[in-house]
Amino acid sequence: MVTSMLIVFVLGYLLIAFEHVIHINKATFALIMCGLLWAIYAMSTHDPHTTHDLVVALGDTCEIIVFLIGAMTIVELIDRYGGFNIIVHHLHAGNKRGLMWVLSLVAFFMSSILDNMTTTIIMVMMLRRMLQDQRERWMFASVIVIAANSGGAWSPIGDITTIMLWMKNYVSSVSLIVNLIVPCIVSVVIPTYIATLYISATPVEKLNNQDQRIGYEMSKEHHNLSILVLVCGVAGLLFVPAFKAITGLPPYLGILISLGLLWLLTELIVRHYKLDGKIEGRISQALKAIDMPTILFFLGILLAVGALQEAQILTHLATWLDETFHEAYLITGIIGVLSSIIDNVPLVAACMNMYPVATDAMIAASSDPGYMALFVEDGLFWHLLTFCAGVGGSMLIIGSAAGVVAMGIEKISFMWYLRRISWLAFLGYVAGMVTIWLETFIIEI
Question: Which end is more exposed in the chain, N or C (fewer Cβ atoms within 10 Å of the end residue's Cβ)?
Fold first, then answer.
């Protein structure tokens, strides 16, 4: 059974990793893989409780899926009303080096609220209006990818992996932000600084002309509506961590409340301003445009990992890692490097199943209490995993959704990125881990 499940998982993983080569959506293989894994497990064990175990795994997965659908719908609605245009049209810099810093910082903080893929699309599309030289845009776009990935790692709602860890109480909002924001900033500042040395300091044209606007043209009235929906949408996303902290209820309930309120607001707007047919400003229309293949990919991959956990494969892997390395920085560092090749979602999902949150009883019973203490809620291991899985994806252009999107829009060469950018991303990655170590060392003394 174990051999068969591993073969299916490895083959599925390879097909997912080479999505950009075979041009078949990775959700296809994730769904097939999860079905085959559960089928092999059921037929091998003949356990009557398998159906119950599958329902439990589906319930845990659907908490994340519901949250993602709500968040992606809110982001899509903000975009339909031109809310992101309000941001990009206020970006100004005196020269190209200054512009790179501005774009990097905006992408960093924007992706802490939005997902890194949406942030990259917005920033790279704007970049195409500002720079004519393709190779120059490649350098800028690559820095945006690094910034977007790092920006999502320190926010509980900034990346699917942080959402997963936060929703299951492996990390908490405040602790995540406090412990990771500085290392994530370091992981962006170093690559950005080096990248600026490879571009000229010549002036850059500003995006301040009406004919340079991205998207549809807006009247003064529509401009105000864009600001209103932007503010309410962002407030709705920020409401979710506060809701979880105050009530203790799962985040998907908070996002459903935010979605419902925004739905009510936009219905009133559409009716009052008679916007039907102009910007399609209803939630029901935005729902049709969200990235359902990505949602189905998450569904398939999380259920697939759940099958490996039920078969105890991940438990044995965790034991092997502990016995072989027994070092949190090394284990998470390897996971971060792997996330540049393999999607970070299944890696984090596997780690969550391999290493449960440690309790006082588990620490007391452990032969190495100090090591086991790293796995408590908000423990060092979980913060390292969050950082490494998010930031590590920048080391290859195919290592993150942001990188794949930038590659598609700008036709960035894989080898060009490997030669010019991968080492920059690696330096930022290592510097961020060193920063986490320094923070921990200072706290201990």
Answer: C
Q: How far apart are CA 179 and CA 202, in angstroms?
A: 37
Distance of alpha carbon 164 from its chain centroid, rounded?
10
Radius of gyration of the chain (CA): 22
Structure tokens at 305: 């990992």
Q: Which amino acid is at 57?
A: A
> pLDDT by residue (tens digit) across 176-202?
999 999 999 999 999 999 999 988 877
131-140 LR contacts (CB < 8 Å, sep 24+)? 131/96, 131/204, 134/410, 136/96, 136/199, 137/410, 138/410, 138/412, 138/413, 138/416, 138/417, 139/100, 139/195, 139/198, 139/199, 139/420, 139/421, 140/99, 140/100, 140/103, 140/199
Which amino acid is located at 233 in the chain? G
Task: Give the 3-state secondary structure percentages of the chain, helix then strand then coil, rounded to 5.
Answer: 75, 0, 25
Q: CA 335, 171, 391: angle at the middle one, nearest 5?
A: 35
Render pLDDT for 194-242 as a digit per residue (tens, 0 to 9). Answer: 999 988 877 765 544 433 333 344 466 678 888 899 899 889 988 888 8
Task: Find the Cα–Cα–Cα–Cα dihedral 196, 337, 120, 423, rounded to 10°.
Answer: 20
pTM of the model: 0.75
Residues 71-91: tens digit of each pLDDT: 888 888 888 888 877 776 777
Taking the C-alpha atoms of residue 379 and residue 332, their distance in angstroms, rounded to an integer, is 13
Q: Enter the tokens of residue 351.
A: 């780690």
**What amino acid is encoded at 310 in this protein?**
E
What is the reported pLDDT for 444?
A: 65
At 95 the three-state DSSP class reads strand
Distance CA 144, CA 424 (A): 13
* 264 burial via Cβ count (<10 Å: 0-12, 13-18, 19+): exposed
3-state secondary structure (DSSP) of residue 219: coil
Query: Do 394 and 428 touch, CB atoms closer than 8 A?
Result: yes
**82 φ, ψ (degrees, to nearest 5):** 80, 20
Q: What is the b/e burial string over 322-355, where b = at least 16 CB atoms within 10 angstroms of the residue's CB? A: beeeeebbebbbebbbbbbebbbbbbbbbbbbbb
Amino acid symbol at 332: T
Q: CB-side exposure of 165: number of CA atoms within 13 Å?
A: 40
CB 351 within 8 A of CB 396: no
Q: One-letter amino acid identity for 48?
A: P
Cα–chain-centroid distance for residue 215?
25
Comparing CA positions, the residue from 40, 63, 318, 49 lying closest to residue 169 is: 63
Q: What is the pLDDT at residue 214?
A: 36
Cα gap 38→330, rounded to integer Å: 31
